[in-house]
Write a structure and sequence with these properties.
Domain Transposase IS701-like DDE: 6-215
Number of strands: 12
Distance between the termini: 52 Å
InterPro entries: IS701-like, IS701-like_DDE_dom, RNaseH-like_sf, Transposase_11
Domain Transposase IS4-like: 220-340
Organism: Gordonia sesuvii
Protein name: IS701 family transposase
Strand content: 15-25%
Radius of gyration: 24 Å
Largest sheet: 10 strands, mixed
Helix content: 40-55%
Amino acid sequence: MDTIAPRFARHDAARNAGAFLLSVLSALETKNCWTMAEMAGHASPDRLQHLLSRAKWEADDLREDLQRMVIDGLGVEHAVLVVDETGDLKKGTNTVGVQRQYTGTAGRIENSQVAVYLTYATRSGHALIDRALYLPRSWTDDPDRCAAAKVPADVGFATKPELAAQLIARALTAGIAAEWVAGDEVYGDDPKLRSMLAANKIGYVLTVGCHRQVIVDDYYIRADDLADTVPERAWKRLSAGDGAKGQRWYSWARVRVYEPDLPGHHWMLIRRNDTTGELAYYRCHHPRQVSLAALVAVAGRRWTVEESFQSSKGLTGLDQHQVRTWTSWHRWTILVMLAHAFLTVTTVAERARETPDATLIRLSVNEFRRLLIALILTPLHASTRLLDWSRWRRQHQQRARQCHQNRRSKPH
């Protein structure tokens, strides 16, 4: 709060932001303006709703503070920017960006809101540092609908790889020094994104489909056909990093490929699961010659964004917002990302101070949050405050019920 308070035009807005952050860090199972206001001791959710919709402050300013906190806390050595999208299941059609679309959260087409996120990952830890809301063409082709959700007039349709490129460019402009970018097939299959990274002398390890073609020895070959040509002696068993059950061991091979008009060194990296025989393919680039182990380490970092999604949704309620407009969505997400980054950075600092103990696993973000809640954030509300809120909720629900009945009783 000492860091972000100057970003707010009024002291009451800064105090409400503090109440918001404490609430999303808390043990509340459902995090929305109603439940969070009750925990903060507010008489109603009005203050938090005002913070998200009408108060004078810029989410982009807090993004700068967030990124500075993450970089200072996690360091810059071998930093990787990881891009990926995630979906939040939503009802109705008025929430900005919502339509029936595929989301990996559900594994199928659902009524959802999708956004592309950028994770900053080092050996110390990882945290979300930026995001971009995906607006389907059903939104960008409907100016009235966009205006109702307060989408800026200059925001047009952009694919997910284009949004990822915007996030990466924004990070570079902000002075974030990252040696690598990692992502899944959505981004690896996009030649414009790969060209943008190569032109900026940024290495990448991006997953691609098995049917994608590369140029080897002056001819095109599919990724899966290329894997068949790799001799057994070329495969090396390496760990992609530490997972929940220990080191993630696979066999890896790489083949140099040709990228016309692009600088640097280029490879096709192939990962083999020696138990199932399953193969995965990565387009790779770096301005300098690097080892196979370096490419494998970056490939392993891609999963940090999945961990960031799981942790930020499960611990700080990234997906639990009940806001509908462009501004409110950007404010909710930046505040939640800031709270989650605090957990990550402080956990990393605590790990550095801990005396190594072979009988304990290292301190996790989940365990640190449990201690934070138990020792610092446990709410001590008087019973009268709880009864006041119960009365307020019931009055609000009765008004909503009456309004609904009145609408249904009107003649058509």
